[in-house]
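Give me structure tokens for this 372-residue protein.
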Amino acid sequence: MMGRRLQVEDHLRHFSHHPLDDDELALVTDAIHPSRIQQAIVLSGSHRAAFLCEKGKLFILLAQDGNGQASTRLRSIPGRQISHIAVRSARMHNPALISGAVALVLESDPRTVVSFDSWRPMIAWLADKETKHNPTHSVTFAAPIVKLTSKFAALDEAGTVHVWGEKKTVQPPDPPDEDEAFQEAWNRHVLFDDPIQQWPSRLPEVLDYTPRSLPLPPIKKLATGGCYNVGVSRSGQLFVWGYRSDKWPEIAAVNQMSGVEFKEAVIMTDTGRRLPIVDAAAGRAHVVALAADGSLWSAGDGLNGQLGIGTRQFGLCTGNRTTDIAANDTGEEFAVYWQKVDTAGILGDGGRREAVFCEGDHTLIVVRNNTA
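Here you go.
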């Protein structure tokens, strides 16, 4: 799971479902200047977070219990320099896996992606120890990788998007120690943040690491989210893809992940003019697009205000075209079609929109002040 890192005047801010607290952030910034941090990754259990810094250096924030007292330290991982790293949570019920599978690209070999089913063998491999584990999978692409995302999607220098990491049909059996008592403990952990005293001895989920290229024109912007993924082509086309289902409302423009052809998501103005897109982002179940004229457009789940359109209800339908609000856990706050974001009401008229980011049910808009 990726965490959104925000640098404000040399301070580090972080939000996610389980954000780092002020003491943990202070520990990180005491050792690493925020301007050096290129990427922040939320982990689980004793491994709270990882930070990829300039010159390919990786740091892990560790929480430890010693003599009945909790302590936190920042560990520097020695070894090879990393240019890109991504995590895919494969088993959240096992901190020993440290958030599951991980993929990375080394600065010394920008065309190759290596994947591991958990972090411990990856760390040993980076350090080049005698006890190192070989990668679970390694693949070399025709062009250097310029972006790697948490959904295990890679964008190469030629503009091709490669995806991998789907769950295989046959999975390891559930452990015998996963019982009702653990389920109760897990519920208390989710509801009240009570610590888990003993975790089931789970094995990693088995993933398919064989990559495939998506049927897209050359892409310049790539973002992956929970339900949806977005790409912006070099010519300003917008594409949205994910997994379609008739059981809940979906963005009308989404392409089926396994499709052999992707259709462009066209956004039109009230006057019928097609808008070229310069940036796009995907959250848990919503997407936001920035047009060349500075207008912002959103679609998907808006229950928490992430669409930027205020309180608005839509008549939602299930697969048989009948309204069934009870079947939709987000009520009617879901925009199937593109909605124009009220940027004047949110941002005022003094800034130029330059980029958008989404994380979970949050939307961030980068604005340049024209009066400066």
